Amino acid sequence: MQRYDRQYLADSIRAVVSELRVGLSQGGDVREFSADDVMARVHERLAAEDGSRPRRIVNATGVVLHTNIGRAALAADAVEAVRQAASGAIDLELDVASGRRGDRESWVRRDLAALTGAPAVSVVNNNAAAVLLALNSVAEGREVIVSRGELVEIGGSFRIPDVMAKSGAVLREVGTTNRTHPRDYAEAINERTALLLKVHTSNYRIVGFTCDVDLSALVAIGRERGVPVMEDLGSGALVDLSSFGLPREPVVRERVEAGADVVTFSGDKLLGGPQAGLIVGREDLLGRIADNPLKRALRCDKMTLAALAATLRIYRSSPHLSSELPTLRWLTRPPEEMEALGKACLVGLRTALGPAYDLEVIDDESEIGSGALPIETLPTKAIAVGHPDRSADAIAGSFREADPCVLGRIRRGRFVLDLRCIVDASELIPNFSGAS
Ligand SMILES: *Cc1c(COP(=O)(O)O)cnc(C)c1O
Questions:
Q1: Residue to mutate (ligand 1; options 232, 233, 279, 370; most atoms within 8 A of CB)
Q2: Greatest mean pLDDT range, 19-33, 49-63, 331-345
Q3: pTM tops 0.85
Q4: Burial of residue 31, with CB atoms counted within 10 A of its CB: 0-12 exposed, 13-18 middle, 19 or more buried
Protein backbone atom coordinates (compact mmCIF):
# COMPACT_ATOMS: atom_id res chain seq x y z
CA MET A 1 0.00 0.00 0.00
CA GLN A 2 3.03 2.27 0.16
CA ARG A 3 3.66 1.62 -3.49
CA TYR A 4 0.17 1.45 -4.99
CA ASP A 5 -3.09 3.33 -4.75
CA ARG A 6 -5.54 1.58 -2.43
CA GLN A 7 -8.37 1.24 -4.94
CA TYR A 8 -6.01 0.02 -7.67
CA LEU A 9 -4.63 -2.60 -5.29
CA ALA A 10 -8.13 -3.69 -4.24
CA ASP A 11 -9.18 -4.05 -7.89
CA SER A 12 -6.10 -6.17 -8.62
CA ILE A 13 -6.72 -8.45 -5.62
CA ARG A 14 -10.40 -8.85 -6.59
CA ALA A 15 -9.42 -9.75 -10.15
CA VAL A 16 -7.04 -12.44 -8.89
CA VAL A 17 -9.55 -13.84 -6.40
CA SER A 18 -12.19 -13.94 -9.10
CA GLU A 19 -9.84 -15.87 -11.42
CA LEU A 20 -9.16 -18.37 -8.61
CA ARG A 21 -12.89 -18.73 -7.99
CA VAL A 22 -13.52 -19.53 -11.64
CA GLY A 23 -10.62 -22.01 -11.59
CA LEU A 24 -12.05 -23.70 -8.52
CA SER A 25 -15.55 -23.96 -9.94
CA GLN A 26 -14.01 -25.76 -12.93
CA GLY A 27 -12.41 -28.39 -10.72
CA GLY A 28 -9.25 -26.52 -9.61
CA ASP A 29 -7.26 -27.43 -6.52
CA VAL A 30 -8.41 -25.81 -3.29
CA ARG A 31 -4.83 -26.00 -1.94
CA GLU A 32 -3.91 -23.08 -4.21
CA PHE A 33 -5.85 -20.90 -1.84
CA SER A 34 -3.11 -20.25 0.69
CA ALA A 35 -2.64 -16.57 1.41
CA ASP A 36 0.91 -16.80 0.04
CA ASP A 37 -0.29 -18.21 -3.27
CA VAL A 38 -2.88 -15.50 -3.64
CA MET A 39 -0.36 -12.77 -2.80
CA ALA A 40 2.15 -14.25 -5.25
CA ARG A 41 -0.46 -14.02 -7.98
CA VAL A 42 -1.31 -10.45 -7.02
CA HIS A 43 2.37 -9.51 -7.23
CA GLU A 44 2.64 -11.20 -10.61
CA ARG A 45 -0.34 -9.29 -11.90
CA LEU A 46 0.94 -5.93 -10.63
CA ALA A 47 4.40 -6.56 -12.11
CA ALA A 48 2.86 -7.45 -15.48
CA GLU A 49 0.86 -4.20 -15.50
CA ASP A 50 3.93 -2.15 -14.49
CA GLY A 51 5.69 -3.78 -17.43
CA SER A 52 3.14 -2.55 -19.95
CA ARG A 53 4.81 0.86 -20.12
CA PRO A 54 7.25 1.70 -22.94
CA ARG A 55 10.19 -0.71 -22.87
CA ARG A 56 13.70 0.06 -23.92
CA ILE A 57 14.78 -1.91 -26.97
CA VAL A 58 18.31 -2.47 -28.18
CA ASN A 59 18.12 -2.11 -31.94
CA ALA A 60 20.27 -4.89 -33.39
CA THR A 61 17.95 -5.29 -36.39
CA GLY A 62 20.27 -3.37 -38.69
CA VAL A 63 17.27 -1.26 -39.77
CA VAL A 64 18.32 2.26 -38.86
CA LEU A 65 14.83 3.83 -39.16
CA HIS A 66 12.51 1.07 -37.93
CA THR A 67 8.90 2.29 -37.73
CA ASN A 68 7.88 -0.40 -35.21
CA ILE A 69 10.51 0.72 -32.69
CA GLY A 70 10.14 4.46 -33.09
CA ARG A 71 12.23 5.39 -36.17
CA ALA A 72 14.92 8.04 -35.62
CA ALA A 73 16.86 8.32 -32.36
CA LEU A 74 17.18 12.00 -31.46
CA ALA A 75 20.42 13.92 -31.14
CA ALA A 76 21.54 14.71 -27.58
CA ASP A 77 20.56 18.39 -27.98
CA ALA A 78 17.09 17.39 -29.14
CA VAL A 79 16.63 15.06 -26.17
CA GLU A 80 17.64 17.89 -23.84
CA ALA A 81 15.21 20.26 -25.61
CA VAL A 82 12.38 17.74 -25.07
CA ARG A 83 13.26 17.40 -21.40
CA GLN A 84 13.19 21.17 -20.98
CA ALA A 85 9.92 21.58 -22.86
CA ALA A 86 8.33 18.76 -20.90
CA SER A 87 9.36 19.88 -17.45
CA GLY A 88 7.94 23.35 -17.28
CA ALA A 89 6.82 26.55 -18.94
CA ILE A 90 8.49 27.65 -22.18
CA ASP A 91 7.96 30.35 -24.81
CA LEU A 92 5.73 28.13 -26.98
CA GLU A 93 3.33 30.84 -28.11
CA LEU A 94 4.85 33.84 -26.41
CA ASP A 95 7.00 36.56 -27.89
CA VAL A 96 9.20 37.25 -24.87
CA ALA A 97 10.46 40.63 -26.16
CA SER A 98 7.02 42.21 -26.58
CA GLY A 99 5.14 40.11 -24.04
CA ARG A 100 2.53 39.42 -26.68
CA ARG A 101 1.15 36.21 -28.05
CA GLY A 102 3.64 34.49 -30.35
CA ASP A 103 3.48 31.68 -32.81
CA ARG A 104 4.40 28.07 -32.06
CA GLU A 105 6.31 27.57 -35.28
CA SER A 106 8.69 30.44 -34.61
CA TRP A 107 11.28 28.00 -33.15
CA VAL A 108 11.65 26.22 -36.46
CA ARG A 109 10.63 28.72 -39.13
CA ARG A 110 13.92 30.42 -39.89
CA ASP A 111 16.10 27.33 -39.93
CA LEU A 112 13.62 25.27 -41.96
CA ALA A 113 13.26 28.04 -44.53
CA ALA A 114 17.03 28.51 -44.73
CA LEU A 115 17.70 24.77 -45.05
CA THR A 116 15.13 24.20 -47.78
CA GLY A 117 15.26 27.52 -49.61
CA ALA A 118 11.47 27.80 -49.32
CA PRO A 119 9.90 31.16 -48.40
CA ALA A 120 7.23 29.64 -46.14
CA VAL A 121 6.95 26.57 -43.90
CA SER A 122 4.48 24.71 -41.72
CA VAL A 123 4.79 21.76 -39.33
CA VAL A 124 2.17 19.13 -38.43
CA ASN A 125 1.94 15.78 -36.72
CA ASN A 126 3.47 13.59 -39.45
CA ASN A 127 3.92 13.49 -43.20
CA ALA A 128 0.54 11.76 -43.67
CA ALA A 129 -1.05 14.79 -41.96
CA ALA A 130 1.07 17.12 -44.10
CA VAL A 131 -0.24 15.53 -47.31
CA LEU A 132 -3.84 15.53 -46.06
CA LEU A 133 -3.67 19.16 -44.94
CA ALA A 134 -1.92 20.41 -48.09
CA LEU A 135 -4.42 18.65 -50.37
CA ASN A 136 -7.39 19.89 -48.37
CA SER A 137 -6.07 23.47 -48.27
CA VAL A 138 -5.17 23.71 -51.94
CA ALA A 139 -7.52 21.31 -53.74
CA GLU A 140 -10.72 20.63 -51.78
CA GLY A 141 -13.60 20.01 -54.18
CA ARG A 142 -11.24 20.14 -57.16
CA GLU A 143 -9.05 17.73 -59.13
CA VAL A 144 -5.51 16.59 -58.38
CA ILE A 145 -3.60 14.87 -61.17
CA VAL A 146 -1.32 11.96 -60.18
CA SER A 147 0.54 9.35 -62.23
CA ARG A 148 -0.72 5.75 -61.86
CA GLY A 149 2.90 4.78 -61.15
CA GLU A 150 2.88 6.93 -58.00
CA LEU A 151 -0.28 5.80 -56.19
CA VAL A 152 1.81 4.78 -53.21
CA GLU A 153 0.82 2.77 -50.15
CA ILE A 154 3.03 3.28 -47.10
CA GLY A 155 2.70 0.71 -44.29
CA GLY A 156 0.06 1.49 -41.69
CA SER A 157 -2.73 2.38 -44.12
CA PHE A 158 -1.39 5.54 -45.75
CA ARG A 159 -2.58 5.25 -49.36
CA ILE A 160 -2.57 8.19 -51.72
CA PRO A 161 -6.08 7.53 -53.13
CA ASP A 162 -7.55 7.21 -49.60
CA VAL A 163 -5.83 10.31 -48.24
CA MET A 164 -6.96 12.17 -51.35
CA ALA A 165 -10.58 11.12 -50.76
CA LYS A 166 -10.45 12.22 -47.11
CA SER A 167 -8.97 15.57 -48.12
CA GLY A 168 -12.01 16.27 -50.26
CA ALA A 169 -9.91 16.49 -53.41
CA VAL A 170 -10.76 14.41 -56.46
CA LEU A 171 -8.05 12.05 -57.69
CA ARG A 172 -7.44 12.21 -61.41
CA GLU A 173 -5.15 9.32 -62.39
CA VAL A 174 -3.08 9.58 -65.54
CA GLY A 175 -0.66 7.34 -67.42
CA THR A 176 -0.09 3.67 -66.62
CA THR A 177 1.68 1.79 -63.85
CA ASN A 178 5.02 1.73 -65.67
CA ARG A 179 4.83 4.69 -68.05
CA THR A 180 3.50 8.21 -67.73
CA HIS A 181 4.30 10.96 -70.27
CA PRO A 182 4.16 14.77 -70.08
CA ARG A 183 1.18 14.76 -72.46
CA ASP A 184 -0.79 12.59 -69.99
CA TYR A 185 -0.68 15.42 -67.46
CA ALA A 186 -1.17 18.17 -70.03
CA GLU A 187 -4.27 16.49 -71.53
CA ALA A 188 -5.86 15.92 -68.12
CA ILE A 189 -5.67 19.57 -67.04
CA ASN A 190 -9.05 21.33 -67.12
CA GLU A 191 -10.85 24.14 -65.28
CA ARG A 192 -11.37 21.89 -62.24
CA THR A 193 -7.65 21.09 -61.86
CA ALA A 194 -6.18 22.46 -58.62
CA LEU A 195 -2.84 20.67 -58.41
CA LEU A 196 -0.32 18.41 -60.11
CA LEU A 197 0.95 15.95 -57.50
CA LYS A 198 4.17 13.99 -57.62
CA VAL A 199 4.68 11.26 -55.03
CA HIS A 200 8.14 9.87 -54.31
CA THR A 201 7.93 6.10 -54.71
CA SER A 202 9.80 5.70 -51.43
CA ASN A 203 9.33 2.03 -50.81
CA TYR A 204 9.39 0.46 -54.27
CA ARG A 205 10.99 0.87 -57.67
CA ILE A 206 9.43 0.34 -61.04
CA VAL A 207 12.11 -1.05 -63.34
CA GLY A 208 12.20 -2.25 -66.94
CA PHE A 209 10.15 -0.54 -69.66
CA THR A 210 9.40 2.60 -67.70
CA CYS A 211 9.22 6.33 -67.99
CA ASP A 212 8.00 9.03 -65.69
CA VAL A 213 7.82 12.79 -65.82
CA ASP A 214 10.52 14.40 -63.73
CA LEU A 215 9.77 17.30 -61.47
CA SER A 216 11.14 20.05 -63.73
CA ALA A 217 9.06 18.81 -66.67
CA LEU A 218 5.99 18.74 -64.44
CA VAL A 219 6.75 22.25 -63.19
CA ALA A 220 7.04 23.45 -66.80
CA ILE A 221 3.57 22.04 -67.57
CA GLY A 222 2.15 23.53 -64.36
CA ARG A 223 3.64 26.97 -65.03
CA GLU A 224 2.33 27.02 -68.58
CA ARG A 225 -1.20 26.16 -67.45
CA GLY A 226 -1.17 28.07 -64.15
CA VAL A 227 -1.47 24.96 -61.97
CA PRO A 228 0.71 24.55 -58.84
CA VAL A 229 2.86 21.45 -58.39
CA MET A 230 3.17 19.59 -55.09
CA GLU A 231 5.59 16.83 -54.25
CA ASP A 232 5.24 14.30 -51.41
CA LEU A 233 8.89 13.41 -50.87
CA GLY A 234 8.25 10.88 -48.09
CA SER A 235 11.59 10.81 -46.37
CA GLY A 236 13.28 13.74 -48.01
CA ALA A 237 16.83 14.60 -47.02
CA LEU A 238 18.05 18.02 -45.92
CA VAL A 239 21.58 17.20 -47.07
CA ASP A 240 22.88 15.21 -50.00
CA LEU A 241 23.51 11.74 -48.57
CA SER A 242 25.89 10.90 -51.41
CA SER A 243 28.36 13.39 -49.91
CA PHE A 244 28.52 10.96 -46.94
CA GLY A 245 29.11 8.00 -49.25
CA LEU A 246 25.48 6.88 -49.02
CA PRO A 247 22.95 6.20 -51.78
CA ARG A 248 21.29 9.37 -52.98
CA GLU A 249 17.81 10.36 -51.80
CA PRO A 250 16.02 13.49 -53.11
CA VAL A 251 17.14 16.64 -51.30
CA VAL A 252 14.31 19.00 -50.30
CA ARG A 253 16.18 22.16 -51.31
CA GLU A 254 16.78 20.80 -54.82
CA ARG A 255 13.07 20.06 -55.25
CA VAL A 256 12.18 23.60 -54.14
CA GLU A 257 14.79 24.99 -56.56
CA ALA A 258 13.39 22.79 -59.34
CA GLY A 259 10.13 24.69 -58.87
CA ALA A 260 7.90 22.53 -56.63
CA ASP A 261 5.32 24.90 -55.13
CA VAL A 262 4.72 22.69 -52.08
CA VAL A 263 6.96 19.90 -50.73
CA THR A 264 6.04 17.61 -47.82
CA PHE A 265 8.34 15.23 -45.92
CA SER A 266 8.75 13.40 -42.61
CA GLY A 267 10.60 14.59 -39.51
CA ASP A 268 11.58 11.13 -38.29
CA LYS A 269 12.86 9.44 -41.41
CA LEU A 270 16.21 10.46 -42.92
CA LEU A 271 16.01 13.87 -41.27
CA GLY A 272 16.60 12.11 -37.96
CA GLY A 273 14.25 14.18 -35.81
CA PRO A 274 10.92 13.61 -34.01
CA GLN A 275 7.73 12.39 -35.70
CA ALA A 276 6.50 15.40 -37.66
CA GLY A 277 5.27 16.39 -41.09
CA LEU A 278 7.09 19.30 -42.71
CA ILE A 279 5.46 21.40 -45.39
CA VAL A 280 7.54 23.97 -47.26
CA GLY A 281 6.81 26.10 -50.29
CA ARG A 282 5.13 29.12 -51.80
CA GLU A 283 3.94 31.85 -49.47
CA ASP A 284 0.34 32.08 -50.77
CA LEU A 285 -0.21 28.29 -50.65
CA LEU A 286 1.33 28.01 -47.18
CA GLY A 287 -0.93 30.88 -46.14
CA ARG A 288 -3.97 28.79 -47.10
CA ILE A 289 -2.53 25.92 -45.06
CA ALA A 290 -1.98 28.18 -42.03
CA ASP A 291 -5.58 29.45 -42.20
CA ASN A 292 -7.13 25.99 -42.51
CA PRO A 293 -8.97 24.92 -39.32
CA LEU A 294 -7.61 21.40 -39.93
CA LYS A 295 -4.16 22.82 -39.18
CA ARG A 296 -5.20 23.34 -35.57
CA ALA A 297 -6.26 19.71 -35.31
CA LEU A 298 -3.01 18.44 -36.80
CA ARG A 299 -0.56 20.74 -35.02
CA CYS A 300 2.47 19.50 -33.06
CA ASP A 301 2.92 19.63 -29.31
CA LYS A 302 5.71 21.54 -27.55
CA MET A 303 7.98 18.50 -27.12
CA THR A 304 7.91 17.69 -30.82
CA LEU A 305 8.57 21.29 -31.80
CA ALA A 306 11.42 21.55 -29.28
CA ALA A 307 13.04 18.38 -30.64
CA LEU A 308 12.56 19.47 -34.23
CA ALA A 309 13.97 22.94 -33.56
CA ALA A 310 17.08 21.46 -31.93
CA THR A 311 17.54 19.00 -34.81
CA LEU A 312 17.21 21.73 -37.46
CA ARG A 313 19.68 23.88 -35.49
CA ILE A 314 22.24 21.10 -35.83
CA TYR A 315 21.67 20.92 -39.60
CA ARG A 316 21.95 24.67 -39.87
CA SER A 317 24.96 25.33 -37.68
CA SER A 318 26.98 22.20 -36.90
CA PRO A 319 30.12 21.31 -38.86
CA HIS A 320 29.84 17.72 -37.55
CA LEU A 321 26.44 16.48 -38.74
CA SER A 322 27.38 12.83 -38.85
CA SER A 323 28.63 12.78 -35.30
CA GLU A 324 25.75 14.77 -33.80
CA LEU A 325 22.82 13.10 -35.54
CA PRO A 326 22.50 9.42 -34.54
CA THR A 327 20.72 8.56 -37.82
CA LEU A 328 23.61 9.86 -39.93
CA ARG A 329 26.18 8.47 -37.52
CA TRP A 330 24.72 4.97 -37.85
CA LEU A 331 24.19 5.17 -41.60
CA THR A 332 27.84 6.14 -42.07
CA ARG A 333 29.38 3.78 -39.51
CA PRO A 334 32.75 2.46 -40.74
CA PRO A 335 32.90 -1.37 -41.00
CA GLU A 336 36.19 -1.47 -39.02
CA GLU A 337 34.48 0.22 -36.07
CA MET A 338 31.61 -2.29 -36.19
CA GLU A 339 34.02 -5.20 -36.49
CA ALA A 340 35.98 -4.06 -33.40
CA LEU A 341 32.72 -3.58 -31.49
CA GLY A 342 31.59 -7.07 -32.55
CA LYS A 343 34.79 -8.63 -31.22
CA ALA A 344 34.40 -6.72 -27.97
CA CYS A 345 30.83 -8.07 -27.65
CA LEU A 346 31.84 -11.71 -28.22
CA VAL A 347 33.53 -12.07 -24.83
CA GLY A 348 30.56 -10.79 -22.83
CA LEU A 349 28.06 -12.72 -24.94
CA ARG A 350 29.98 -15.99 -24.42
CA THR A 351 29.83 -15.47 -20.67
CA ALA A 352 26.12 -14.55 -20.72
CA LEU A 353 25.06 -17.40 -23.04
CA GLY A 354 27.34 -20.22 -21.92
CA PRO A 355 29.55 -22.53 -23.99
CA ALA A 356 26.77 -24.26 -25.98
CA TYR A 357 26.28 -21.28 -28.31
CA ASP A 358 28.29 -20.63 -31.47
CA LEU A 359 29.17 -16.98 -31.95
CA GLU A 360 30.76 -15.46 -34.99
CA VAL A 361 31.26 -11.93 -36.38
CA ILE A 362 30.00 -12.00 -39.98
CA ASP A 363 29.55 -9.67 -42.96
CA ASP A 364 25.92 -8.79 -43.56
CA GLU A 365 23.65 -6.09 -44.99
CA SER A 366 21.76 -3.36 -43.08
CA GLU A 367 18.73 -1.44 -44.32
CA ILE A 368 17.95 2.24 -44.01
CA GLY A 369 14.29 1.54 -43.24
CA SER A 370 11.06 3.57 -43.25
CA GLY A 371 10.73 2.90 -46.93
CA ALA A 372 13.73 5.11 -47.70
CA LEU A 373 15.96 3.68 -50.44
CA PRO A 374 14.23 0.27 -50.52
CA ILE A 375 16.71 -1.41 -52.81
CA GLU A 376 20.04 -0.19 -51.52
CA THR A 377 21.54 -1.95 -48.50
CA LEU A 378 24.60 -0.98 -46.50
CA PRO A 379 27.41 -3.48 -45.88
CA THR A 380 27.59 -4.14 -42.16
CA LYS A 381 29.05 -6.37 -39.45
CA ALA A 382 26.88 -8.59 -37.31
CA ILE A 383 27.18 -11.36 -34.75
CA ALA A 384 25.56 -14.65 -35.75
CA VAL A 385 24.27 -16.59 -32.74
CA GLY A 386 23.69 -20.33 -33.19
CA HIS A 387 22.93 -23.30 -30.95
CA PRO A 388 22.95 -27.00 -31.90
CA ASP A 389 19.51 -27.66 -30.35
CA ARG A 390 17.73 -24.31 -30.64
CA SER A 391 16.09 -22.73 -33.66
CA ALA A 392 16.87 -19.18 -34.76
CA ASP A 393 13.29 -18.25 -33.73
CA ALA A 394 13.78 -19.64 -30.24
CA ILE A 395 17.07 -17.77 -29.81
CA ALA A 396 15.45 -14.56 -31.09
CA GLY A 397 12.67 -15.09 -28.50
CA SER A 398 15.20 -15.37 -25.65
CA PHE A 399 16.87 -12.12 -26.69
CA ARG A 400 13.48 -10.38 -26.90
CA GLU A 401 12.53 -11.56 -23.39
CA ALA A 402 15.85 -10.46 -21.91
CA ASP A 403 16.25 -7.21 -20.02
CA PRO A 404 16.62 -4.93 -21.91
CA CYS A 405 14.90 -6.47 -24.92
CA VAL A 406 17.41 -7.09 -27.70
CA LEU A 407 15.87 -7.14 -31.15
CA GLY A 408 17.96 -8.86 -33.81
CA ARG A 409 16.93 -10.37 -37.11
CA ILE A 410 16.85 -13.75 -38.78
CA ARG A 411 19.01 -13.99 -41.85
CA ARG A 412 19.23 -17.16 -43.94
CA GLY A 413 18.01 -19.25 -41.02
CA ARG A 414 20.44 -17.74 -38.50
CA PHE A 415 19.78 -15.31 -35.68
CA VAL A 416 22.02 -12.27 -36.11
CA LEU A 417 22.70 -9.12 -34.11
CA ASP A 418 23.58 -6.22 -36.42
CA LEU A 419 26.15 -3.90 -34.85
CA ARG A 420 25.25 -0.79 -36.88
CA CYS A 421 23.05 0.92 -34.25
CA ILE A 422 24.85 -0.46 -31.18
CA VAL A 423 26.70 2.22 -29.27
CA ASP A 424 28.33 0.23 -26.50
CA ALA A 425 29.30 -3.46 -26.27
CA SER A 426 27.39 -3.80 -22.98
CA GLU A 427 24.07 -3.17 -24.79
CA LEU A 428 24.28 -6.53 -26.50
CA ILE A 429 24.90 -8.42 -23.26
CA PRO A 430 21.40 -8.51 -21.82
CA ASN A 431 20.30 -10.06 -18.59
CA PHE A 432 18.83 -13.44 -19.47
CA SER A 433 17.41 -14.25 -16.02
CA GLY A 434 13.83 -15.34 -16.57
CA ALA A 435 14.54 -16.11 -20.21
CA SER A 436 14.79 -19.70 -21.35
C1 LIG B 1 6.65 7.75 -45.17
C2 LIG B 1 5.85 8.40 -46.21
C3 LIG B 1 4.65 9.01 -45.89
C4 LIG B 1 4.11 9.03 -44.49
O5 LIG B 1 4.94 9.75 -43.63
P6 LIG B 1 4.73 9.67 -42.03
O7 LIG B 1 5.65 10.71 -41.52
O8 LIG B 1 5.08 8.28 -41.65
O9 LIG B 1 3.29 9.98 -41.79
C10 LIG B 1 3.93 9.61 -46.91
N11 LIG B 1 4.37 9.59 -48.18
C12 LIG B 1 5.53 8.99 -48.52
C13 LIG B 1 5.95 9.00 -49.97
C14 LIG B 1 6.31 8.37 -47.57
O15 LIG B 1 7.47 7.77 -47.89
A1: 232
A2: 331-345
A3: yes
A4: exposed
